[in-house]
Amino acid sequence: MFFKFTKKIVFVSLALSVVGCSTHSQQGMAQKSMSSETITAKETLYESTQNYSALISLYRDVLKAKEDPSIRYKLAKTYYQRGDSKSSLLYLTPLLNDNTKLATQAKILQIKNLIQLNNFQEAISVANELLLKSPNEGEVYNLRGIAYAQNGNLVNARNDINKAREFFINDNVAINNLAMLNIINGDFNNAVSLLLPQYLNGVKNSRLIHNLVFALVKNGDLDYAKDIIVKERLNTSPDDLINALKKTTHVSKGVTR
C-alpha cells in the first residue's frame, strides 16, 4: 500500500507533491499488478507440469512477504498433492477456525490429509463436525465414505457415497468408489457392471482402468481384461499381469478422493 505524505507549505509545492505521488502510486500499482501476473504465470506453468516443489517454493516466498489465506491454502494443498500430509496439516492449521468458505475447503483438505495418513477415525470425526455445519457438502460425504471403507465399515461407506451422489459429487468419482466397495466385498460382477459402462463411455482415468481390469480378471473375463491391458498399454506382458492379478488375494483400496 502506498501512502501520500504532503507538506502544505505553498500551493505549488503541494501541487507538485500530489502529482509526484500520484505518478509514483500508479507506477507502484503497475509493479504490483505485474508481480501478481508473474505469480499467476508461474503458478500455471508449475501446475501444468505438476512441479510441486516449485509451487511450494513460490507460495512460501509469497507468504514470507505477506500473509494471504488463499495462498496459504494453496501451499497446504500442494504439500498434500506431493504426498506430504504432515506439512500440509501444519500450514493448514491457521485456516481451520474461521467461518468462511475457505475454512470449509481447509477442513475438507484436512480430512484428505488424515485419510492419507491412515488416521481414519479422526477423519470421520472431522467430517462429522463439518457436516453439522455444512450438511450439503457432497465431497465431505464421499470422504467420510472413504474413511469408513478404509476402517472396514462398508455399509456406512456405501451409504455415504450414495449420499454424496445426491449432492451431485462427480459421478465418475462416486461410481468408482462404489465399484471399489464391491471389489473389497468380493462382488466382482457388480464392480464390472459399474465400471465397464464408464470405460466404454470414454472415462479412462488410471484408477478406474486398474479397478476394472482387476475386477474383470477376478470375475473370469480374461479376454476382456487382456484387451484393455493391451489397448491401454498397462503392461508389456499382458498374460503375466493377468496371472499375477489372478493370484492376488488382497486389493489395495483404490478409492477416489
From TrEMBL:
User: Any stretches that span the bilayer, and where are they?
Assistant: none
Which PANTHER family does this entry report, sorted A to Z?
Answer: TETRATRICOPEPTIDE REPEAT PROTEIN 6 (PTHR44858), UDP-N-ACETYLGLUCOSAMINE--PEPTIDE N-ACETYLGLUCOSAMINYLTRANSFERASE SPINDLY-RELATED (PTHR44858:SF1)
Query: Which Gene3D superfamilies does its entry note?
Result: Tetratricopeptide repeat domain (1.25.40.10)
Q: Which domain of life is it from?
A: Bacteria
Spell out the protein name for this chain: NrfG protein
Provide the alphabetized UniProt keywords: Repeat, TPR repeat
Source organism: Pasteurella multocida
